[in-house]
Amino acid sequence: MTNYLHINHPFTLESGASLPYLTAAYNTYGELNEARDNVIWICHALTANSDAEDWWPGLVGEGFTIDPNQYFIVCVNMLGSSYGTTSPKSIDPDTGKPYGLDFPLVTTRDQGRFFDLVANYLGIRRIRLLMGGSMGGQCAGEWACLNPDRFDLLCLLATNARFSPYGIGFNESQRMALRADPTLGTDAPDAGRLGLEAARSVAVLSYRHYRTYHATQQQPDADDIDDFRASSYQRYQGYKLWKRFDPTCYYALTRGMDSHNLGRKRGGEAAALQKITSPTLIISIDTDVLFPTEEQSLLSRYIPNSRLDVMSSDYGHDGFLVETPTIGLLLADFLADQLQIDANTKHAFTDSLSGRTFAIPGTEEV
């Protein structure tokens, strides 16, 4: 069940703009133990929500590595999202109407500060493990730089210290598609629909890989000259996002993603990463074109106590959502090492995970 926290005082953003009050939508799973030291905090990716059990099946849930019977799991919907936290859908008190395209820029650093504030309001002082993938990993990295003493352990998946010009180019192409829709940000029925569907089609290409399409979108009849399966797939992906996500929120979040730079006003990326004191597991995907392995290698080079694991996957960037059996085993091994679980217990646990069967969801970057 999604919960809502209302914070009735202004929140000043990195840009200097201010949100007069905040609402934070969040989900929790499990129970906080007496020592209050069993918290796992998950930062979601671009268009996901705070229900991590729903969008990370096989990793979060009973019997999996992030098990609510063992941990108190928290996931907070980020600022600007469609799922209940303050966003372009919220009412601007100055106009009495939704912010829409006038919603101020929220950087990934702002997201880290927002999570830190929410944790304080929830009475969470210490976090056993902070983790996130993609934009969620960017926000987790920011939070770890802002308040490194709060975290025992860190796990960063398919993410980077600074968003690349290539990634910014993809996001701007999506925003161009959104702006080309004259209904974006208006009161028209289905406002922004066509723009969002086109934007998502662009995005999915960056989340997948040549091998993904080659394996899943081949035309059944090699003699066809039109009506291709890949074309239908792109349209379907656009429609599917339109059914669940607000176009102005998508516009706002991609701007925030573009802002990501851990080194800004911290003396550069290397200096910023060296501030992270928590033992850190970094997971990379060998076919990820949006967040290539060289970016995770940079994280590993400068985070003092870090370990880099590179997964093989045919799913590109989406591997961080799809390859949950591998991620679960890597994370279980990392937790066992860091929490000093004895060798017999560690092997029994990882063996039990490796024997499980997992459904491979037909998902895309969320």
UniProtKB/TrEMBL annotation:
Major location (coarse): cytoplasm
Active site (UniProt): S134 (nucleophile), D288, H317
Keywords: Acyltransferase, Amino-acid biosynthesis, Cytoplasm, Methionine biosynthesis, Transferase
EC category: transferase
Top-level taxonomic group: Bacteria
Pathway: Amino-acid biosynthesis; L-methionine biosynthesis via de novo pathway; O-acetyl-L-homoserine from L-homoserine: step 1/1
UniProt catalytic activity: L-homoserine + acetyl-CoA = O-acetyl-L-homoserine + CoA
Keyword flag Transcription: no
Binding residues annotated for substrate, in chain numbering: R200, D318
Pfam family, one: Abhydrolase_1
SUPFAM superfamilies xref list: alpha/beta-Hydrolases
Subcellular location: Cytoplasm
Keyword Secreted on entry: no
One MF annotation (Gene Ontology) recorded for this entry: homoserine O-acetyltransferase activity
Limits of the AB hydrolase-1 domain: 39-323
The protein's Enzyme Commission number: 2.3.1.31
GO BP, sorted A to Z: homoserine metabolic process; methionine biosynthetic process
InterPro entries per the UniProt record, alphabetical: AB_hydrolase_1, AB_hydrolase_fold, HAT_MetX-like
GO cellular component terms attached to this protein's record: cytoplasm
Entry similarity comment: Belongs to the AB hydrolase superfamily. MetX family.
Assembly behavior: Homodimer.
Biological role: Transfers an acetyl group from acetyl-CoA to L-homoserine, forming acetyl-L-homoserine.
Protein name: Homoserine O-acetyltransferase
Taxonomy of the source species: Bacteria, Pseudomonadati, Bacteroidota, Saprospiria, Saprospirales
